[in-house]
Amino acid sequence: MELTSPAFKQNAVRALNDPQLQKALGNVEKGFVAKRAAARAALPEFEALRDQARAIKTHVLANLDLYLEAYEARVTASGGHVHWAESAEQAREIILGICRKANARTVTKGKSMISEEINLNDYLEKNGIEPVETDLGEYIIQLRHEHPSHIIAPAIHLNKEQVEEDFRRVHTHLPDSRDLSEPVALLSEARAVLRQRYFAADVGITGANFLIAETGSSVIVTNEGNGDLTQTLGKVHVVVASIEKIVPTLEDCAGILRLLARSATGQDMSVYTTFSTGPRRPEDPDGPGEYHVVLIDNGRTAMLGSEFEDMLRCIRCGACMNHCPVYHAVGGHAYGSVYPGPMGAVLTPSLNGINVSGHLPNASTFCGRCESVCPMKIPLPKMMRHWREREFERNLAPAASRYGLGIWAFFARRPALYRWASGIGMKLLGRMGARNHRLSSLPLAGGWTAHRDLPAPEGETFVAAYHRQKGA
């Protein structure tokens, strides 16, 4: 899937002029914000849990090598296999090798953002293996050849009429008389088709919300149960996870789980929370014959010890984008990357480079809502500022922006000159807008005045008023 983060501005313009998308984006605030607030209010210890979770993940990142080694030892002891992948390319090759060894022609997949990150589906298809997404949202966007527009609700940019159109296009067995106008009917149709694919698949691939060093377990959190079928019905279960998913103990995992669903969907807990440890044992009624874990770095190690290390605490709840006014305006696809919203504005430059993702850290009002609702207390605005600084230092920002900031910095370093210049500017702008108390056009500010009026300054500057009143 082509990523278009360098074209964020063009993508945003299209999104703002898409009536259907704008209608669908209204569901983000309605469906997530109020529910998260209610769930948070119903749990008095919510803030204490945030502090505890932040401490756990910070400790893990400081000792990541030790916990990864402990996890590998536990997985091996349970009969599983751990594979290490430094890059997306290595991860894809490892997964392909596992599938070919199992003679797989079809694989089922649970919802996994890391598999989107490494572009796994396209790679498997090019090598003769059909991947089938089993999460309803992921299945829908797979039919449309799109990438997710939200990390927990991949198809939130669509309405049910669009989904019905896609089902009728792909599910050619559907009679015209079949009523698919209600969401339940669409769900039933998807379930009927996917159930056949579960039994046909030789390999099941899932992500992992957490990896537990104490037991060697992988944990997935879902609301549909598709993840359970994916990992138990195939001959082989492949867990694909990035290295920062490690937590030390089952107790640590339980504490963070209390935050995850409340922050993501406003639920106390997701419908299914599934722990998997190794392949099927003789006494087990079902399960895979082989259990593989592919641990992916893909740029994470470079973030350790940097200004962006805190981003590795992220548990992919989506709360930051649910509360972001920029995401509400343009949706996920405008970001042109696997990870949209504030967390994507920090993570994408870390993975792809600021030279191709520079627009994303700038796509923020710095209102701070993302940090205030993040269950792991990740300072997202601070890290976006760090990326802006790097973009400026490397002369990657537009020339007009660099020169404008340079001129402002010249005056800002000289307070007396700054006060004099701002005073002159206030008087000049005040006279230009004296008639209507507004400026409908302004040289060098056409990007603003083309869409809105600029209020004309009235009176003196704040600093001048402050000194005058302080003296009085």
Notes on the protein architecture:
GO terms for molecular function: 4 iron, 4 sulfur cluster binding; metal ion binding. Residues 305-335 form the 4Fe-4S ferredoxin-type domain. InterPro entries: 4Fe4S_Fe-S-bd, 4Fe4S_Fe_S_CS, FTHF_cligase-like_sf, Helical_ferredxn, LUD_dom, LutB/LldF, NagB/RpiA_transferase-like. This is L-lactate dehydrogenase complex protein LldF. It holds the Pfam family LUD_dom. There is one protein chain. With 472 residues, this protein is an alpha/beta fold. Among the domains are: 43-298, Rossmann fold, CATH 3.40.50; 412-471, no CATH class. The chain contains 24 helices and 12 strands. It has helices at 8-16, 19-41, 46-62, 64-77, 88-101, 113-117, 120-126, 136-144, 160-170, 183-200, 226-233, 250-264, 300-303, 319-322, 325-330, 341-352, 354-357, 359-362, 369-373, 380-393, 399-412, 415-432, 446-449, 462-471; strands at 81-85, 106-109, 130-133, 203-206, 210-212, 217-222, 236-242, 246-247, 272-276, 290-296, 438-439, 454-455. The protein has a 6-stranded parallel sheet, with helices on both faces. A 4-stranded mixed sheet has the order 8-5-6-9. A hairpin with a 4-residue loop joins strand 5 and strand 6 (217-222). Helix 3 (46-62) packs across helix 12, helix 9 crosses helix 10 and helix 16 (341-352) packs across helix 20 (380-393). The longest helix has 23 residues, at 19-41. The chain is globular.
